[in-house]
Each structure stands twice: as structure tokens, then as C-alpha cells.
Amino acid sequence: MELEVRHLRVISAIAEGGSLTRAAVTLRMTQPGLSAQLRRIEVMLGGIIFERGQSGVVPTPFGEMVLTRARAILPGIDDLLADTVRATRPGGSPDRIRLGSVGAPLLADLVLAVRSVLPAATVSTRGQYSQSPFLDDLATGRLDAAVLGDNPGYELPPQDRVVLRPLVTEPVFALLPAAHPLALQKEVSLHQLLDDDWAMPRPDSDRSREYWATVFASMDRQPRTPYEAEGRQLVEIVRAGLAVSFCQATFIEVPGVAVRPLAGSPVWYRHVLAWHDVGQFAAHCDEIVSRVGAGYLAVCARAPVYARWRERHPDQARPCGAG
């Protein structure tokens, strides 16, 4: 986890509100989620920023130093962002569509949908694992649309000027070494996997790790997670036989790893398409959503394990707008 501008905004909001409860309302977060975010920031910076009491929070001497720097930095950042919006969106820039995506299988279909509906537009993309910067960029118009995601009970917070359209909620599958004994089964028990070491992405603002923790807590156990990794690195740790992990249902097996459904489908993930509420994308959003939904069905068909799961569960994981 690296320090980001949003972390400075969190610290400033807590200081201005004088309590985590008031700051959570301002930031459109839950109070437990904000508390967890603050703890991660304090661990990252190496000191306690606020002293907690019954009447609220008070900055520590260390926190005063951090807040002084944050208050000096944020106005300049806000001015820079305002200037870049004006510079990059003259007249709304109707010939340019900027897209973003967290780790999801829908970005290519989103690009194809935009190109089909808006053939004169120049399309660019960028990707990252954290969702919060994308929401900020969508709200200010620095991004036109993005593929995001969330989990049950940990949905994306509403944001001014941002439309959030859920596309589909799908089960989360297990990612195993190909030589793992459970890879011989058609589906695996999450209880059994808790005997293994796990590889997981670092905790971040999408709150997936918090959601997973609640799922594990319902089984009165938490996994051993000695390996923190994302993307290709995570797959390589699993391939080496060092750990197991979660993966999206549309993940296609590669040599050395096995994808298996979890018995009873205890873990779910929701794909969400988000866009700025004004502009060319917003004007054609329904048609674009329909095309992305159809593209998702094609992705499902190319993922054999997920395709078989969908045959057994025809009434689940049906994308909105796909016809």
C-alpha cells in the first residue's frame, strides 16, 4: 500500500469532522470501513495520527505534523486537477472517450462497444487495482467510464456526477495448483482450503479483503496469508504450489493451475459499469451497457469451468442489459 492523495483527504476529513462517524458521512463510507482505512494509513506512515476518545478524535503530535503537510499539499492538488479538466475537456471533448478498469474481463468488450456506438471517437484506456481513484476521476470528468466491481454488503459508495450500473453478480472460484489433491474434484469446499497457505491481493479501497474476512469469520476461521500478490505474481505463487487463492469465475485455466467452483458458492463479486453523468458516453449508455452484457456472455462461454457452472445454475449470474 502506497500513500495516495485520497489518504490525505481521509485524514483531513477526520480532523475536520472531529470524529470517525462524522467523517464517514462526509466521505460516504461506513464507520468500520473508515476505521480500517485509518489503521492502514497509520501503519503505512509508521505512527498514530489520532487519539480516540468518547468525545471524538484528537490529532497526536505526529498527526499534527501529517495534517500540516496534507493541508499544504491538497489545495495545490485540487488546483492541478481543475486545470487538467479544463485543459483536457474543451467543449466536452466529444471525440475522445477515456476508459478505466480494475482487474476484470470486460474492458475489451467496453472498448469494442464504444467504438461501435461512437465510431468517430478516439478511445484510450488505463488500468489499476484500486477503485477509489477511478471514482474520483469519473466524478471530475477526467475519465468517461470505467469497469469497477464490489462485493455483497461492501458496495461502491455513491458519488456525485457518477452513474453506477451493476452488470452482473457472479460467484468467486478457487485457484489451485494443478497438482493439488482437491483439483481432482469438480468443486471444492472452502473449509478444506483453509488448511492451505493463501496468496491474496493487498488490502485496498475496494474492500474485498474485508468482505472475505466476514466470509471466513462465519466459519470461525481465518486463512494463513503469508503471500501478498496480485495479477501474474499471484498466479505464479499458486502455480509453484505455494498457496491457493480466489479468482474470478471467468479466469481461464493456464498450465500449472486449476480453477474450481466453491461448493455452495459462499463468495460473490459484482461487476459494475460506471460513467460520468454528462457526455457522449452518458448519451449512449443503454446501448453500450447492452453490448457489454452480450460481450460478458461470450467471455463466459470461453471459460470452460464457468460455462459448466452456468449450465448447472441457469438462473444465476445473468447480466443486465444483455438481452
TrEMBL record:
Family matches, as Gene3D superfamilies: Periplasmic binding protein-like II, Winged helix-like DNA-binding domain superfamily/Winged helix DNA-binding domain
- Which GO terms label this protein's molecular function in UniProt? DNA binding; DNA-binding transcription factor activity
Instruction: Write the record's keywords in alphabetical order, separated by commas.
Output: DNA-binding, Transcription, Transcription regulation
Recorded superkingdom: Bacteria
Membrane-spanning regions, if any?
A: none
Which residues are in the HTH lysR-type domain?
A: 1-60
Instruction: Respond yes or no to whether keyword Plastid is given for this record.
Output: no
Could you list the residue ranges forming a coiled coil in this record?
A: none
Pfam families the record matches? HTH_1, LysR_substrate
Q: Does the keyword Phosphoprotein apply?
A: no
Which PANTHER family has this protein been placed in?
SMALL NEUTRAL PROTEASE REGULATORY PROTEIN, TRANSCRIPTIONAL DUAL REGULATOR HCAR-RELATED
* Family note: Belongs to the LysR transcriptional regulatory family.
Q: What protein name is recorded for this chain?
A: LysR family transcriptional regulator
